[in-house]
Amino acid sequence: MSAFIEATSPHTMNTYGRLPIAMSHGQGCRLWDVNGKEYLDALGGIAVNTLGHNHPELVPALQDQLSKIIHSCNYYHVPNQEKLAAKLVELSGMTNVFFCCTGLEANEAAIKLARKFGHDKGIDKPEIVVYEKAFHGRSIATLSATGNTKIQQGFGPLVEGFIRVPVNNIEALKKATANNPNVVAVFFETIQGEGGVNPMHMDYLRDVRALCDEKDWLMMIDEVQCGMGRTGKWFAHQWAGIKADVMPLAKGLGSGMPIAAVVAGPKAANIFQPGSHGTTFGGNPLAMRAGVETIRIMEKDGLLENAARVGAHLKARLEQGLAGVKGVKEIRGQGLMLGIELDKACGALTQRAADAGLLISVTADSVIRMVPPLIMTQAEADQVADILLPLIKTFLAE
C-alpha cells in the first residue's frame, strides 16, 4: 500500500476554496484522485468537460494536432478557426465569430462591442443593462457587470456604464431605461450559473428581443455556462425561438481545452476591425481542433438529446426524492444544468458529497449545482440521486 498523498499547494496563490483532493485521471463520468479514490463527476469541471474524461475520439485527435502545430499567431490564417466559426454560425443562425480563451475574455469582448456600437452611433457614454445575481467574470469590466457585491468588494472603483435590473421583469427593464438615449445593449445569462441556476423565462426573453429591436439595442446573451448543448439545445436561449446579436461562449466548447468565442449577428459582426481587439492565444490550432472535434462528436453521438433526456430523468428523481422535505426551496434548471436551492447555506455538502464519491458544487451559498458531462447515462444519473438525496436530507435534519 503506497503512502497517502496530501493534496496541498503552498506555493500557489490562495485564490480558491479548495477541497483537500487532487485528481489523477478520469474515464467517462468518473475521476480518481492521487490516492486512488473514485468519484462520480456531476460537476464536469464546472460545465467544461462536455465529453467527460479521456474520450476515445477526442484524445487521439488532440494528440494528432499536438504533433503538427500547437500555436500559430493570428498574423496568419488558422484553417480550423474558419471551420469552427462556420459551424458555430450554422448552429446559431448568426454570422461571424471571434475566438479567445476564457468566458471572461468573451464577455469582455462583448462589452467592448457594445461600447463601440454606441460610439459608432454617436453616443459618448454608452450604457449596458445587466442583471441582479449575474456573473460575467472577474476582470474589472466583467466584475462591474456582475451582480455580486461580495466578489466586487475590494476592487473599486468599478467601471461605470451599467444599469442593473431584476430578472424576468420586463416592466422593470422598461422603467430603468426610460428616456435614456445612452442605452446600447442588454446583457444576460439565459440561465444564471454562479448566481444560483436562475433561468430566464421564455416569454421574458421574447419580450427583451422585441424591446431590443424596437430600441436598436444589442441583445447580448452570455451562454458561457448554459450553452453548448447543456440544456438540450445548442444554446439555451434557442428554447425561446430567438436569436442573439452577440453571444459569448466558452466552458464546454472544447471539452477541457481553454477556448472561448464571441458569436455575432449582422448588427454586431463588423463592429470590430483590425486593431479593435485581439488576443495572443485565441484561436490557436490546438484549441480549434478541440472545438471542431467536440461538436462533431456531440452531433454524432446525439448528446443534445442525451442531455435533455438524462437531465429530465435526474430532475424527476430529485423532485420525487425531496418532495415534502422541509428546507428544500426549489429544484430548477434544464437538461444537465440543475440547481437545488435550500433554505440555508450548504457549502459543507461539497466535502460531504466528495467523501461519498460524488463531485458537485454549491453556488450562491445555498444552491447545489450539477453540470455533469453531457455523456452521463441515466444509470449514472440514478447514482447521483442515490448518493445526493440522503446527504441533503441528513444535512437539513441537523
* Poorly predicted residue ranges: none
The residue fraction in helices comes out at 25-40%
Decide which structural class fits the backbone: alpha/beta
Average pLDDT, all residues? 97
Q: Identify the overall geometry.
A: globular
The number of strands is 17
Question: Which quaternary structure do these chains form?
Answer: single chain
Query: What's the gyration radius in Å?
Result: 21 Å
- Largest sheet descriptor: 4 strands, mixed
Into which percentage range does the β-strand content fall?
15-25%
- Strand arrangement across the biggest beta sheet: 1-2-3-15
Number of helices: 12
Tell me the series of helices and strands, N- to C-terminal.
EEEHHHEHEHHEHEEEHEEEHHEEHEEEH
Terminal CA distance: 37 Å
Mind sketching the topology for me?
Layout: E1 23-27, E2 30-33, E3 38-41, H1 44-47, H2 58-66, H3 79-92, E4 96-100, H4 103-120, E5 127-131, H5 140-145, H6 149-152, E6 162-165, H7 170-177, E7 183-189, E8 191-192, E9 198-199, H8 202-215, E10 218-222, E11 246-249, E12 260-264, H9 285-300, H10 303-322, E13 328-334, E14 337-342, H11 348-355, E15 358-359, E16 361-363, E17 367-370, H12 378-397
Parallel strand pairs: 3-15, 5-6, 5-7, 7-10
Antiparallel strand pairs: 1-2, 2-3, 4-12, 8-9, 11-12, 13-14, 14-17, 16-17
Helix pairs in contact: 2-9, 3-9, 10-12
